[in-house]
């Protein structure tokens, strides 16, 4: 079914909305699905009236979601499954709901995609699948086995990535284990928002940046357009590119940045002095995290193009 129709779940989310925009630019017909649990209609503003964009306010936990959509649009060729409960602390408070939304719904969508004859299924995995594994850089094979997940979120994402990447029948499944994604449209308003959106907002408002702990913890930050490019390659949208093998792939910069370095970079870019306030370490925080990106480089010739400084400039311009 190479009709160029894609379903994007989580279309009103931070990454999902950027993905929809790119798919429309590539000439695809895009069916967006979101229940606005954490997504925002505003995120879809610049493309919601596009003639090839169709939006449905529905939940991925609904049975027959894909077959219902196929009645109206025909069977889609690619499913991008990004909808999820995205807050780790919320997942700790609601483990059963997290399992239903972040794992069981994935398995059901995968089965529906198989029944509809979809050719690809691309899933939003997470660095949280590695739990407390400290063997850096993190390689795809590490998660599982001895892993202790630090949240129901990490566990459900792990199980989903496995189900998608190891599915040897039905659509070709690719799970992208994304590290710390940042960029325009990332919601800065919650205390659980990503550190970059928080710092950017605080800097723009002239407030001191809030560092939890000593600031020497490190993360692997990857800009949203680079992540979107990985999604498109994983989906095989460029017919001239070599076919991507099914499986699980890290998506990150492959480099570590400390929270303190990040704070200083943002303060420099916004021409603020040393305006940092230190708070106690956040409970459950991991110390260091960085992706090995050898596998995705080999399979998709993907590498990040936007440096942290450039990505921060773009994020700050959007604020
Ligand atoms: C991120 C993901 C999470 C995933 C995890 C897996 C986001 C928003 N969260 O969490 O979904 O489970 O990776 O590894 O991308 N910090 C501050 N000050 C702040 C905010 C944060 O110092 O105002 C620190 C945190 O304590 C942490 C670091 O910055 O040490 C990164 O925090 P955050 O952006 O929330 O991401 P992760 O904890 O890595």
Structure description:
- The chain is an alpha/beta fold.
- The protein has a single domain (5-181, 221-253, 292-305), classed as NAD(P)-binding Rossmann-like Domain (Rossmann fold, 3-Layer(aba) Sandwich), CATH 3.40.50.
- 35% of the residues lie in helices and 17% in strands.
- It has helices spanning 14-25, 65-73, 88-93, 95-116, 152-165, 195-204, 224-234, 259-269, 294-300, 308-318; strands spanning 5-9, 29-33, 53-56, 78-81, 120-126, 172-178, 180-182, 209-212, 218-219, 221-223, 247-251, 257-258, 276-279.
- A seven-stranded parallel β-sheet has the order 3-2-1-4-5-6-11, sandwiched between helices.
- The N and C termini lie far apart (40 Å).
Quick synopsis:
The chain is of the alpha/beta class.
Structural class: alpha/beta
CATH superfamily: NAD(P)-binding Rossmann-like Domain
CATH class: Alpha Beta
Give the neighbour order of strands across the main sheet. 3-2-1-4-5-6-11
CATH architecture: 3-Layer(aba) Sandwich
Residues in helices, as a percent range: 25-40%
Ions, cofactors and other ligands present here are: uridine-diphosphate-N-acetylglucosamine
The tally of beta strands, per DSSP, is: 13
Q: What is the element string, with H for helices and E for strands? A: EHEEHEHHEHEEHEEEHEEHEHH
Distance between the termini: 40 Å
The geometry reads as globular
> Can you tell me the residue ranges where pLDDT is under 50 for at least 5 consecutive residues?
none
Mean pLDDT: 95
In terms of DSSP E residues, the strand content is: 15-25%
Helix and strand arrangement:
Blueprint: E1 5-9, H1 14-25, E2 29-33, E3 53-56, H2 65-73, E4 78-81, H3 88-93, H4 95-116, E5 120-126, H5 152-165, E6 172-178, E7 180-182, H6 195-204, E8 209-212, E9 218-219, E10 221-223, H7 224-234, E11 247-251, E12 257-258, H8 259-269, E13 276-279, H9 294-300, H10 308-318
Parallel strand pairs: 1-2, 1-4, 2-3, 4-5, 5-6, 6-11, 7-10, 8-13
Antiparallel strand pairs: 9-12
Helix pairs in contact: 1-7, 2-4, 4-5, 6-8
Bound molecules: uridine-diphosphate-N-acetylglucosamine (UD1).
């Amino acid at each position: 079914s190479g009709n160029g129709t894609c379903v994007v779940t989580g279309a009103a989310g931070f990454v999902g909305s950027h993905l929809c925009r790119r798919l429309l630019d590539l000439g695809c017909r895009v069916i967006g699905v979101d229940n606005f649990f954490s997504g925002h209609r505003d995120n879809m503003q610049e493309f919601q009236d596009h003639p090839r964009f169709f939006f449905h306010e529905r939940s991925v936990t609904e049975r027959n979601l894909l077959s219902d959509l196929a009645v109206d649009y025909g069977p889609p060729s690619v499913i991008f499954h990004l909808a999820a409960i995205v807050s780790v602390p919320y997942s700790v408070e609601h483990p059963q709901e997290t399992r239903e939304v972040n794992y069981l719904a994935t398995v059901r969508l995968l089965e529906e995609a198989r029944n509809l004859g979809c050719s690809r299924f691309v899933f939003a995995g997470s660095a949280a699948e590695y739990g407390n594994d400290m063997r850096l850089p993190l390689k795809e094979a590490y998660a599982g086995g001895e892993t202790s997940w630090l949240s129901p979120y990490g566990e459900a994402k792990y199980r989903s990535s496995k189900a998608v990447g190891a599915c040897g029948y039905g659509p070709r499944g690719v799970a992208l284990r994304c590290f710390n994604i940042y960029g325009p449209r990332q919601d800065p308003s919650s205390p659980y928002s990503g550190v970059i959106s928080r710092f950017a907002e605080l800097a723009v408002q002239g407030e001191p940046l809030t560092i939890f702990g000593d600031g020497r913890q490190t993360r692997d930050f990857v800009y949203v357009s680079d992540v979107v490019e990985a999604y498109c390659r994983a989906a095989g949208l460029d017919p001239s590119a070599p076919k991507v093998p099914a499986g699980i792939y890290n998506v990150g910069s492959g480099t570590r940045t400390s929270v303190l370095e990040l704070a200083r970079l943002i303060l420099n870019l916004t021409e603020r002095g040393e305006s940092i306030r230190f708070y106690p370490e956040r409970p459950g925080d991991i110390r260091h995290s960085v992706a090995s990106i050898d596998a995705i480089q080999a399979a998709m010739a993907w590498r990040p193009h936007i440096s942290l400084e450039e990505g921060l400039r773009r994020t700050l311009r959007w604020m």
